[in-house]
Amino acid sequence: MGTGELDREAHVAAGTEGNGGTAAPRTLAEALRARGDEGLAALLRARPDLLVPVPSDLTQLATRAGTRASVVRALERLDRFTLQTAEALAVAPDPAPYRVLLGLMAGDEGDADTGAALPRAVRILREQALVWGDDERLRLVRTARELLAPSPQHPSPTGLGPTVAEATAGMSPTRLQEIIATAGLPTTHDPVSAVAALTDLFTDRERMGALLDTAPMEALGVLDRLVWGPPYGEVTPDPAPPVRWLRDRGLLLPATARTVVLPREVALHLRAGRAHRLPEPVPPAVTPAREYRPQVVDSTAAGQAYTALATVEELAKEWNEGGPAVLRAGGMSVRDLKRTAVALDVTEQVAAFWLEVAYGAGLIAPDGEAAERFAPTPEYDEWVDRPAAERWARLAGTWLAATRTPGLVGSQDAKGRTLAALGPDLDRGIAPEVRRRVLTLLAGLPAGASPDPETLLARLRWERPLRGAARESGTDLRARLASWTLTEAELLGVTGRGALSAHGRALLPGAPAPGTDHPVDGHAPEHPWKSPAPVPAADGSEASDGRRPAHAAVAGHAGAAALLAPLLPEPVDHVLLQADLTAVAPGPLERPLADTLAVLADVESKGGATVYRFTPGSVRRALDAGQAAADLHAFLAAHSRTPVPQPLAYLIDDVARRHGHLRVGAASAYVRCDDDAVLGEILADKRSASLRLRRLAPTVLAAQADPATLLEGLRSMGFAPAAESAEGDVLITRAHAYRTPARTAPAPVPEGPPEPDATLLGAAVKAIRAGDIASTVVRKDESATPGAAGGGELPRTSAAETLATVQAAAMTGSAVWIGYVNAEGAASQRVIAPVRVEGGFVTAYDHTADEVRTYPLHRITGVAELADDAV
Fold first, then answer.
1. Residue 307: beta bridge partners?
2. Where is the composition biased (Basic and acidic residues) (predicted)?
3. 259: helix, coil or strand?
4. Strands (DSSP E) found in 480-525
5. pLDDT digit string (tens) for 308-342?
6. How many CB atoms lie within 10 A of CB 102?
7. Percent of the chain at pLDDT exceeding 70
8. What's residue 797's pLDDT?
9. Contact 631, 653 (CB under 8 A)
10. What per-residue string of b and e applies to 591-612 under the rule 16 or more CB within 10 Å gives b?
11. For residues 93 and 103, what is the distance between their CA atoms, to the nearest angstrom?
12. Helix (H) or strand (E) holding 835
């Protein structure tokens, strides 16, 4: 297909601005005014920062859309080819016909893929108000042109330099005449015509080719080094003959005293008209690295999901009586993180991940006390009683939408401070976007396929070349986030063996069908990076940011839980007791059984089956918790599929026989025992010297140590004492479950406003339209009306004229234009349709606010009639 055919086809596909046959717009505001409501809604949806606050009219919307901060944000959300299109427009004439843009993108020889993808790129730029005008007069907004146009301080990604006119600005007329004469052009009478003649020569393919045919080979080599950029080169005061030949003919123009630059027109000729060395109209495909059966992926992910739940529960048990202290600057210390990692039997980085997931889900939090420390929240007790699949969906949904980034723990911020787990400064607004997009790309692979990480990163770079490209700690933050996402998804059980599981896919409403991410037709998704769904509240009814309901997110979580539930192992109600004082749990235990066994025995190993070991200390722990020996025998007999081994029964009876034989109370502390021989044995033992014991009576010893120290000392000597109360009763010691006050889970901290919903968009478009009517409406005989305002000022009429005009409008049902000053003294212009005038008030439909309002007549500064076709 030739360039002409591509041009005609693309011209039809791209369409026009949609002016309905009217004259071409002169400003961006006029172009926006010509759009329909859906076009305005599309702009506000793509650039939600324009809605904060809602613009008063289309002129203000256009002004805000051209501000530097908003344009930078919009450019960051363009894919590579659309950004390349904007960069090409920045080096094109202003305005540029579509055929010129096509030539810059596809070159003189044309390119089918580029020609097919260009209409989509122009449509996106128009939709986001970065480009306006019809196909004969495409205009890049001024701020975007300033950001993307080449300059010595900010080179363009195109590698192009300034135009001939820009490079020769300030050059002496004599020097210009010498250049055009050496280039074989007739001399002119002024510098402007000289620059125009030189530009015409460089843009004429035939004449330019003839000129270069006469160039020395060394001169062509110099041009080859500059043609794709950077276009600047250093020269000596006495340059070599090839450089002199180029400079004398204007093919190189002076930029400074020691620098020359290749003019843009010359570079485009050498590039065969292309602005970019390698246009990328087709997004790179994410290729599979390995493929597994989907059943294997789902079962592997389900096993890891169960491990994730067990890890979070183990973390809460570790902090059940209060966790580590909170640092003054927030977060937990490196030492406490190491201890937590040892307790969970994971690395410190993985421990930080589990801490952040539990914190984001509202399961752990600081307690807010003077000596602040971390602890489980009351929400944890509710969460742990829910079905396992629902608990997992809560964790996975929290992770997917969280802006907190566990991978940053241990790195340093811009001020050289180490970022602590659960501390501040871990939020990155881009994190939810990257996680969601990575999983969506995995969803587009064939079922059971794990991705090649390099192709995945290449795709992310194509879709958002600027977004997240800011370098942090010397690396690309976006690439680090993508790598962390793959690792964290595997830890959570969202993926199995690197491939997206069925329950992981259910977390992504609208995810592509398996095997659909192979862009071979030159087209890419219009908006692949959607705003992440908000985190549902504890009851699943409202989004965590308070802006909109999270029904889609809740439905996705429920669907994921339903798919995961059949894959999780069923809790078992029994263990297998063995003669070596161990018990094997062949699967996850029912909660009451697990809680009791955790007190009676110590966990020796974990895995597919958990091994518990019974020791004198663990049995004594159960007795201290109020269990009797008979209760322990009955418990084991009821929950063991094997007979209770004799060694275990003997161990329980032996510890129970000695348990409570000694009694410890407060003297500072005392020991009493009915067997005075035992007390004599204690006094004779050298290890009791530190307790400073003395006999008060044949059956009582007094100590200067406190009861807890005395208990621990006697136990270290091999005795099994029991604490008693002031009444002489045995004290039953149970683990104290410490909880924080009710805490709200941390909300994500996005970098900008979220994507607005349909209700907000509809209301905003109506408000902007109404405000635009008020600011641009045509007044009847404005110039001839005495006291009428012009130039946007408030109208001024007498009270009698105001009353008469609004009464007449109420009778005829017509609209009028009023000036109004509210109670705070703020003045505004409004278009109203009066309905009733009485008691010093006018009740009217306000077109500006799109609602019925009542206005005091004394606050109306003046009124003017509208042209018949104004509203």
1. none
2. 1-11, 518-529
3. strand
4. 495-496, 499-500
5. 999 999 999 889 888 899 999 899 999 999 999 99
6. 25
7. 86
8. 84
9. no
10. eebbebbbbbbeeeeeeeebbb
11. 13
12. strand 827-838
| C-beta contacts of 196-203 below 8 A and 24+ residues apart | 198/164, 198/168, 198/250, 199/163, 199/164, 199/165, 199/265, 202/164, 202/250, 202/263, 202/265, 202/266, 202/269, 203/265, 203/268, 203/269
**Which tens digit of pLDDT belongs to each residue from 131-171?**
999 999 999 999 999 999 998 888 889 999 999 999 998 88
Confidence class for position 112, pLDDT limits 50, 70, 90: very high
Residue with token string 């621990």: 712
Pairing of strands 374-376, 841-846: unpaired
Q: Which residues contact 487 (CB under 8 A, 6 or more apart)?
A: none
| Torsion angle (degrees, nearest 10) of CA 111, 115, 118, 123 | 180
The answer to whether 619 and 600 are in contact (CB under 8 A) is yes
- Bridge-partner residues for 539, per DSSP? none
Tell me the pTM. Answer: 0.77
Encode pLDDT of 424-473 as tens digits.
999 998 899 999 999 999 999 999 999 999 999 999 999 988 875 554 44
Q: Are 614 and 601 spatial neighbours (Cβ–Cβ below 8 Å)?
A: yes
The backbone torsions φ and ψ at residue 314, rounded to the nearest 5 degrees and listed phi first, read: -65, -35
Label each residue of 553-618 as H, E or C.
HHHHHHHHHHHHHHHCCCCECCEEEECCCEEEECCCECHHHHHHHHHHCEEEECCCCEEEECCHHH
Q: Is the pLDDT of residue 778 over 80?
A: no
Q: Which amino acid is at 583?
A: A
Place of tokens 């035992």: 678
Phi/psi-derived region of residue 271, left when phi > 0, alpha when psi is between -120 and 50, beta in every other case: alpha
Q: What average pLDDT does this structure show over 1-12?
A: 38
Predicted confidence (pLDDT) per residue in 832-848, tens digit: 888 889 888 999 887 76
* CB-based contacts of 326, cutoff 8 Å, min separation 6: 332, 366, 372, 373, 374, 422
- Determine contact, residues 257/283, Cβ cutoff 8 Å: no
Say which residues have a Cβ less than 8 Å from residue 606's Cβ, sequence separation at least 6: 310, 345
Strands 722-723 and 663-665, sheet pairing: parallel
User: Would the pLDDT of 731 be above 80?
Assistant: no
Angstrom distance (rounded) from CA 147 to CA 163: 17
DSSP tag of 868:
T
- Predicted local confidence at residue 595, as pLDDT: 80
534 within 8 A of 548, measured Cβ to Cβ: yes
Q: Report the mean per-residue pLDDT for the chain.
A: 84
pLDDT tens, position by position, 24-35: 788 999 999 999
Query: For residue 105, which phi and psi values (nearest 5 degrees)?
Result: -85, -40
The backbone torsions φ and ψ at residue 93, rounded to the nearest 5 degrees and listed phi first, read: -60, 155
Alpha-helix residue ranges (DSSP H) falling in 47-111: 58-65, 68-76, 80-90, 98-106
Q: How many CB atoms lie within 10 A of CB 266?
A: 29
Beta 495-496 vs 499-500: how paired, if at all?
A: antiparallel
Q: Are 656 and 629 in contact (CB under 8 A)?
A: yes
Output the CA torsion sign for 443, 447, 448, 453.
negative
**pLDDT exceeds cutoff 60 at 199:** yes
Q: Find where tokens 């962390």 sit.
A: 484
Q: How confident is the model at residue 729 (pLDDT cuts 50, 70, 90)?
A: low
So what's the pLDDT on residue 730? 60
Q: What is the DSSP string of 411-462?
A: SB-TTSPBPPTT-SS-B-TTHHHHHHHHHHHHHTSPTTEEE-HHHHHHHHHH
Residue 403: strand, helix, or coil: coil
Residue 93 pLDDT > 60: yes
